[in-house]
């Protein structure tokens, strides 16, 4: 099948076989026919990351089991903990869906953070520029405004990619900082609350501009939106023509082109959806949790969402689980501060998980072989 | 093995790629100080043999002797240690580095590389280049150099690394005529300095111009080794393409129908603005298979791509079904009834990681049978896919396992199932049997003939001359983007076509075209 034509670049099919270990009876060998791993890769990588971080807990003079138990209780052990976890999971889930749709066609959007911030700005802009609208109009308009701002921010990445072949990794990452600076400018400058005692934030939203909360907790109606987004996402990808086109594009862009599927059109659409979902998350965050646009509106949701998406292997239903897991990790991270671990412990754990996940996916393509 | 008269001797070399035998017990010898031409069509196994000598591939069995000693060549580095250097067809240069930087790339030693060291090296390389009349700019990045200059950098690279035996893989395929002349001058100069050269090519004239000795390969076998004086261009052309093969599937003669596609004065340019297709005319009728013969790179790819809407044409007319096409999109042409079997089925035809159903849907998912209101009809499609796989005898464990795991023959049948199910008016099949075994090849041929019988037109582009001659009602020979000859079925021997492919006789055989029997 792999007959080489002389017009194709030749590949090296010779590997050094003198690098086998003399002491270890097994060697690692690349297996190109190996399928991508099953669900055990993310699960195993979480376990390995937990074990790895346990070393640092021991160095800090604590028992890893008590620390992890404390985290678990902190995140899921009380109704407060659970509601906090879900509050964190909502933006993670929406941003995760956003990046996942781009990753499906190998567009490496790492700009969810910036798109999230733009969404927050877009939603707030509605409250600032239209202060005297009928109350019922605010929430729909803020959501639309946020999603639109995020989508446009996504286009800033997509258009250079489709028209000038600019690497989307770079533009999407750089635009995060542009978005962050734009946010700083707004909350320190023109949009700052004059009665805010120099606090870098806009005036607080009126109750009409806030998402209703559920059952007296900080939990808000954004949850419904997030679940709806998952359902729509799953439906569109699995059942529609558009989802089919994305599947073909992701599997083989050249074959897709031969079948008359326009790659650049899809990149534009997908980046708008990707940015739109992150922007939607930003809008929900300001109107559901923060109640105003303020400095540091996102604690890195856009970046963490990448872990959420990959842990779920881009599966929307699995993303519900992984976003809750990572949300729990963040909330659990707060609770271990009370026993003396630094707050960055949870970030470290997240990083370790991503690291293990990537190496797990890579190593999964290799096999151990006995050296004879 | 002492005192061998040959600097390179390859014995009984066998190399398989999957189940395709790329070189079949090949013996190959090169004498010291000679220019040795290795001649053969694309896919004859020239590049494979040379790649094994250069350490890019490892032979399955067989042995290589260099200067009479058994050489274990396992990597390009080891090949270089034996004094073998290769100038690749696609240059191995880092485009953003300068020529000098490219040449010293990979050099060991000298941890400290200050400006003095660079100056010394630059001087050394410039002197070396000058000795052989190889000039190129040394201070600008390589991507700014012309193709000919880049090739010179490659040559100096091999010389700098101490190559005594230099392999040129299709060196003239990318050059302008002037650059070719200069290259031959350089080769003569190298020869005067005692270097041995091997040049792989399919251009007969060049072989006669430059070579001392000639080897001919065909379908993985070494056919002949001879001195230049002992042979003629005609004999070489005949050896290259082989004997007439008359066995095959019986072909029903069906009278031609109405014209399906008329191509008038078509010009297609590559990205580099080179005319890949240069003012060609042809017509394909119902019940007709038109074959395109030609050595790879003479415009076949561009012809297929422009007629399937993948690249636009520069000028000319294409009339499809009495309908003049203007800058058509791929989707539009699929809807109009042009099916396409692309050159490399896994690269551009199928999505290897997806299952049978998704792959079958690729061209037809927009039709109302396969999807409604933007929703894919999952159940109906599954049924349809099952039926198609049975009809086309695609052997597959189930409908969802990745098609990348199917055999090449089954993949190709799947591709045909998808395209034929569209009821195409015109089928453009590019190298449809490449890499297939005998049984699968026959199945593909039968499918093409079936299409012809049912009233479609077929444009068959193939490097396999037997196939083209056997199936086509008419063969157009492409050379340098022009039609160098038109041959009706049974009107010319393989030898004649081989000569036309090599650009030899430019006889006005076009007269035949006006006399097509209708």
How would you characterize this protein structure?
The complex is a heterodimer of chains A (372) and B (518). With 372 residues, chain A is an all-alpha fold. Chain A has a domain at 95-316. Chain A is built from 13 helices and 2 strands. Chain A has helices at residues 40-59, 64-76, 79-104, 112-129, 135-164, 168-188, 222-239, 241-251, 253-258, 263-290, 301-311, 316-337, 345-363, and strands at residues 26-30, 366-370. Chain A has a two-stranded antiparallel sheet. In chain A, α5 (135-164) packs antiparallel against α6. The longest helix of chain A has 30 residues, at 135-164. Chain A is globular and about 75 Å long. The model of chain A is unreliable at 1-21 (pLDDT under 50). Chain B folds into 3 domains: 6-241, P-loop containing nucleotide triphosphate hydrolases (Rossmann fold), CATH 3.40.50; 258-337 and 423-518, 3-Layer(aba) Sandwich (Rossmann fold); 347-422, no CATH class. In chain B, 32% of the residues lie in helices and 26% in strands. Chain B contains 17 helices and 22 strands. In chain B, the strands form 5 sheets. In chain B, strands 6-7-8-3-9-10 form a 6-stranded mixed beta sheet, sandwiched between helices. At the A-B interface, α8 and α9 of A face α1, α10, α11 and β18 of B.
């Amino acid at each position: 099948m792999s007959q080489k034509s002389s017009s194709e670049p030749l590949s090296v099919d010779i590997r050094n076989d003198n690098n086998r270990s003399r002491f270890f009876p097994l060697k690692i060998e690349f297996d190109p026919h190996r399928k991508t791993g099953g669900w055990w890769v993310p699960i195993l990588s979480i376990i390995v990351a937990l074990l790895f971080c346990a070393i640092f807990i021991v160095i800090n003079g604590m028992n890893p089991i008590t620390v992890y138990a404390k985290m678990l209780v902190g995140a899921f052990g009380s109704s407060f903990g659970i509601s906090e976890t879900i509050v964190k999971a909502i933006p993670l889930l929406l941003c995760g869906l956003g990046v996942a749709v781009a990753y499906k066609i190998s567009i490496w959007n790492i700009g969810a953070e910036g798109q999230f911030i733009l969404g927050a700005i877009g939603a707030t802009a509605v409250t600032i520029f239209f202060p005297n609208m009928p109350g019922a109009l605010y929430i729909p308009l803020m959501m639309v405004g946020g999603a639109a701002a995020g989508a446009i921010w996504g286009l800033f990445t997509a258009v250079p990619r489709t028209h000038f072949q600019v690497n989307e990794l770079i533009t999407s990452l750089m635009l995060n900082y542009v978005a962050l600076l734009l946010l700083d400018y707004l909350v320190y400058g023109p949009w700052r609350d004059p009665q805010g005692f120099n606090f870098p934030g806009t005036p607080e939203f009126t109750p009409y501009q806030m998402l209703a909360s559920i059952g007296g907790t900080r939990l808000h109606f954004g949850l419904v939106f997030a679940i709806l987004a998952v359902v729509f996402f799953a439906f569109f990808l699995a059942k529609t023509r558009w989802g089919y086109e994305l599947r073909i594009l992701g599997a083989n862009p050249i074959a897709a082109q031969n079948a008359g599927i326009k790659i650049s059109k899809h990149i534009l659409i997908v980046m708008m959806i990707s940015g739109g979902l992150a922007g939607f998350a930003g809008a929900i965050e300001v109107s559901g949790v923060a109640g105003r646009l303020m400095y540091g509106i996102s604690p890195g949701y856009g970046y963490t969402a990448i872990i959420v998406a990959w842990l779920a292997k881009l599966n929307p239903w699995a993303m519900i689980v992984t976003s809750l897991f990572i949300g729990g990790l963040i909330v659990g991270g707060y609770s271990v501060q009370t026993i003396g671990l630094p707050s960055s412990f949870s970030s470290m754990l997240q990083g370790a998980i991503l690291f293990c996940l990537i190496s797990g996916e890579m190593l999964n393509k290799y096999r151990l072989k006995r050296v004879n | 093995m002492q005192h061998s008269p040959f600097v390179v001797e390859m014995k009984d070399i066998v190399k398989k790629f999957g189940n395709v035998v790329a070189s079949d017990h090949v013996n190959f010898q090169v004498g010291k100080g000679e220019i040795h031409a290795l001649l053969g069509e694309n896919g004859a196994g020239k590049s494979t043999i040379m790649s094994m000598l250069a350490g890019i591939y490892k032979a399955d069995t067989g042995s290589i002797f260099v200067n009479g000693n058994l050489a274990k060549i396992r990597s390009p580095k080891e090949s270089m240690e034996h004094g073998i250097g290769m100038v690749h067809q696609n240059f191995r240069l880092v485009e953003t580095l300068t020529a000098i930087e490219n040449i010293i790339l990979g050099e060991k030693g000298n941890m400290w590389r200050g400006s003095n060291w660079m100056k010394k090296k630059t001087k050394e390389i410039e002197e070396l280049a000058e000795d052989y009349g190889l000039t190129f700019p040394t201070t600008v990045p390589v991507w700014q150099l012309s193709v000919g200059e880049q090739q010179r950098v490659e040559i100096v690279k091999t010389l700098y690394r101490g190559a005594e035996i230099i392999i040129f893989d299709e060196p003239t395929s990318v050059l302008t005529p002037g650059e070719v002349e200069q290259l031959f001058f350089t080769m003569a100069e190298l020869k005067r300095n005692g270097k041995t050269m091997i040049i792989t090519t399919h251009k007969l004239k060049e072989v006669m111009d430059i070579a001392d000795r000639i080897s001919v390969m065909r379908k993985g076998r070494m056919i002949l080794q001879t001195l230049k004086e002992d042979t003629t261009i005609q004999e070489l052309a005949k050896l290259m393409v082989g004997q007439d093969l008359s066995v095959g599937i019986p072909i029903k003669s069906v009278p031609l129908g109405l014209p399906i596609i008329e191509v008038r004065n078509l010009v297609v340019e590559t990205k580099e603005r080179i005319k890949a297709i240069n003012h060609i005319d042809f017509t394909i009728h119902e019940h007709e298979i038109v074959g395109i013969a030609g050595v790879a790179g003479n415009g076949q790819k561009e012809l297929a791509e422009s007629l399937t809407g993948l690249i636009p044409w520069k000028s000319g007319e294409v009339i499809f079904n009495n309908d003049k096409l203007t800058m058509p999109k791929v989707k539009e042409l699929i809807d109009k009834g042009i099916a396409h079997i692309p050159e490399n089925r896994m690269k551009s035809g199928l999505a290897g990681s997806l299952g049978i159903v998704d792959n079958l849907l690729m061209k037809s998912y927009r039709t109302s049978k396969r999807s409604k209101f933007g929703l894919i009809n999952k159940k109906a499609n599954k049924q349809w896919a099952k039926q198609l796989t049975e009809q086309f005898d695609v052997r597959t464990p189930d409908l969802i396992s990745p098609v990348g795991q199917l055999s090449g023959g089954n993949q190709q049948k799947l591709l045909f199932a998808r395209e034929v199910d569209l009821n195409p008016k015109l089928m453009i099949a590019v190298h449809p049997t490449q890499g297939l075994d005998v049984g699968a090849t026959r199945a593909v041929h039968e499918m093409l003939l079936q299409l012809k019988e049912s009233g479609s037109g077929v444009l068959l582009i193939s490097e396999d001359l037997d196939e083209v001659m056997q199936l086509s009602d008419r063969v157009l020979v492409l050379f340098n983007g022009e039609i160098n000859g038109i041959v009706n079925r049974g009107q010319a021997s393989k030898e004649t076509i081989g000569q036309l492919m090599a650009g030899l006789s430019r006889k006005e055989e076009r007269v035949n075209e006006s006399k097509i029997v209708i």
